[in-house]
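User: Here's a protein and a ligand (flavin-adenine dinucleotide). What would the complex look like?
Assistant: Let me lay out the input and then the predicted complex.
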Amino acid sequence: MKHYDIAVIGAGSGGLVAATSAHRRGAKVALLEKNKIGGECTHSGCVPSKTLISSARAYQATKHTEARRLKELERKNARLKKIVADLSLDNEILKEALSKK
Ligand SMILES: Cc1cc2nc3c(=O)[nH]c(=O)nc-3n(C[C@H](O)[C@H](O)[C@H](O)COP(=O)(O)OP(=O)(O)OC[C@H]3O[C@@H](n4cnc5c(N)ncnc54)[C@H](O)[C@@H]3O)c2cc1C
């Protein structure tokens, strides 16, 4: 039968700190976990929630950037159309002037 100085129940943030601190001080530690090592913070709390928030922010930023680029393209397209229309008009005026000579 194995002997331990301390048994820590639960390997979440609290249990992991308790177990490693005791181990560093020379105690023989048994760490008991019924589910996954890391507990709530690693698997459903801090880490996943921050990842979700960060992904949502990145998505939001991308959406705004795309909308801004689209407006910019529409503005450039309208300017190009005007330039082409002006050039066509100049061309017609030139043709008319040449035909009179
Ligand atoms: C959405 C969300 C976001 C969060 N964000 C943050 C944050 O940004 N910053 C922050 O500091 N905190 C945050 N928290 C809080 C943080 O997750 C908790 O404070 C922290 O996990 C508590 O750690 P713990 O070790 O006390 O408990 P837990 O992490 O719950 O660990 C307990 C462990 O014990 C195990 N266990 C239970 N009973 C037994 C048993 N009988 N036998 C064996 N094992 C057992 C469990 O399976 C679990 O792994 C957040 C929580 C949530 C829900």
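Summary: Helices lie at 13-24, 39-43, 46-100.
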